[in-house]
Design a protein that fits this description.
Aminopeptidase; N-acetyltransferase domain-containing protein; 2 domains; Acyl_CoA_acyltransferase; 12-stranded mixed sheet; alpha+beta; disordered C terminus; binds coenzyme A
Length: 334
C-alpha cells in the first residue's frame, strides 16, 4: 500500500487503543491477545491487525480461528478520514500473511505431536460473512476480491424489527403448550440436561451447527432464551443473544426432528418475543434481528409469513471463502 500507514499484528499493549474500532460484542477479544503468542492451542485464537498513522490507531481488522483452525473475519474498520487509501485491503493482506504463518505453525506442532510430521499439512479457510445491499457491501466485496476470495454463496436472511413487533397478533394467540411439553427459560434448565444436548446424547438429537445453542455462550441473553422440554428433557430451544446493548438477536430456533409439525416452534418463539417486547427489556433493547438460515426452509417460510410485515429491513447474508494451503516449515519444528 502506498501511503504513510503502518499495518501490523497488534500486541496486547496496543490493542486497548483499538477497542472502539470493532463491535461491542467483540471488544473482549482484544483483551486476549497476550495468550496468543505461538499459541499451540489454536482454538479460539484471535487475529488483530492494526493500522497506525504514526502512533495514531486508524484501522482494525479482527478475526477468530475456531477449533479446526478455520478463521472467521469478525470486522474490518478504517477511520473515516483515511478511507479510500487502500488501508482495509492492506489489513486483509496482512491478516492472510499472519494467518498463514500462525496456522501453519500450529498445524506443524500438531503434526509433530501426533508423530505424522511427514504428512501434507493440508489447508485452512478464511471466511467473511456480510450482508448484501448494505452501505459497506460494495467496499467489502472489492476488498475480498483483492485477496482472491471465492464468489459469495447465500447463508441466511436477516429480518430487522423494532418495537412495532409488539403489535403482532400472534403474540396473543400462542401461549401454553400442553403436557408433556413445557417451555422454560434456558438458564433454568438442569446443566446435566444441557450437557446431554452438547454431547449429542439428549432427546434433541442432531442439530445443524448454525442452530447450536452453544455458540457465543458468553453472550446468550438470559431474559428470553427459552428451552422446550418434553417430560423434563430438552427437545428444542429459542436462543437469543445481545450483540449490541439495544438489540436482541434471535439466533437459533430448533425443535427435535420427531416433534416437528406439532405446532411447537411458534409458541416457543412467541414466548421469547413476549419476554422481550412486553417487559422492561423492550426499553433497553427496542431492536430485534431474526436470523433464518437457508438450510432451514420451513423456518424461513414461517418467519417470512409472520415477521416480514413487522420488519423494517430484510437483507441477505452471504459468505465468501479463501482457501489457503499451509506451507509448514516442519524442519524448524523438529
Ligand atoms: C469498509 C471499509 C473498511 C473500507 O475501508 P477503506 O480503507 O476505505 O478500503 P480500501 O481503501 O482498502 O478500499 C478497498 C476497495 O474498496 C473500494 N471502496 C472503498 N470504499 C468504498 C465505498 N464506500 N463504496 C464502494 N467501494 C468502496 C475501494 O475503491 C477499493 O476498491 P479497488 O481496490 O477496486 O480500488 C471502511 O469504509 C469502513 O471502515 N467502514 C465502516 C465499517 C464497516 O462498514 N466495515 C465493514 C463491515 S465489518
Amino acid at each position: 500500500m502506498d501511503g504513510p500507514f503502518i499495518i501490523k499484528p497488534l500486541t496486547q499493549h496496543e490493542a486497548a487503543l483499538f477497542m472502539p474500532m470493532t463491535y461491542p460484542s467483540y471488544r473482549h477479544l482484544l483483551m486476549r491477545l497476550s495468550d496468543e503468542k505461538m499459541s499451540e492451542r489454536g482454538r479460539n485464537s484471535v487475529f488483530a491487525i492494526g493500522a497506525f498513522l504514526g502512533l495514531l490507531p486508524v484501522g482494525l481488522t479482527l478475526a477468530l480461528a475456531d477449533a479446526s483452525l478455520d478463521i472467521d473475519i469478525l470486522s474490518i474498520y478504517a477511520a473515516r478520514q483515511f478511507r479510500g487509501n487502500g488501508m482495509a485491503a492492506a489489513m486483509l493482506k496482512e491478516l492472510v500473511l499472519e494467518a498463514r504463518g500462525r496456522i501453519g505453525k500450529m498445524r506443524g506442532h500438531q503434526l509433530v505431536r501426533s508423530g505424522s510430521a511427514g504428512e501434507d499439512p493440508g489447508s485452512f479457510r478464511i471466511r467473511a460473512i456480510y450482508e448484501k445491499e448494505h452501505h459497506f457491501s460494495q467496499a467489502v466485496e472489492r476488498i475480498l476480491d483483492s485477496q482472491g476470495f471465492e464468489p459469495s454463496t447465500p447463508r441466511c436472511t436477516v429480518f430487522r424489527c423494532d418495537s412495532e413487533m409488539g403489535q403482532m397478533p400472534w403474540l396473543d394467540m400462542y401461549f401454553d403448550v400442553s403436557e408433556p411439553f413445557r417451555i422454560i427459560p434456558w438458564i433454568e434448565v438442569d446443566p446435566g440436561e444441557i450437557e446431554l444436548v452438547r454431547t449429542g446424547n439428549g432427546e434433541a438429537g442432531e442439530f445443524p451447527q448454525e442452530l447450536s445453542p452453544f455458540s457465543e455462550t458468553d453472550r446468550i441473553e438470559p431474559s428470553n432464551s427459552m428451552a422446550l422440554l418434553r417430560s423434563g428433557k430438552i427437545v428444542g430451544w429459542s436462543i437469543t443473544h445481545r450483540p449490541m446493548p439495544d438489540t436482541i438477536r434471535y439466533s437459533s430456533i430448533f425443535v427435535a426432528a420427531d416433534i416437528r409439525g406439532l405446532g411447537l416452534a411458534i409458541p416457543l418463539l412467541m414466548e421469547s418475543i413476549r419476554r422481550h417486547v412486553r417487559t422492561e427489556m423492550a426499553v433497553q433493547a427496542p431492536k430485534a434481528t431474526f436470523v433464518v438460515y437457508h438450510t432451514n426452509p420451513e423456518m424461513k417460510r414461517m418467519v417470512s409469513r409472520r415477521m416480514a410485515r413487522y420488519s423494517k429491513e430484510i437483507t441477505e447474508s452471504v459468505e465468501r471463502i479463501l482457501s489457503i494451503a499451509i506451507n509448514c516449515i516442519l524442519s524448524l519444528l523438529l
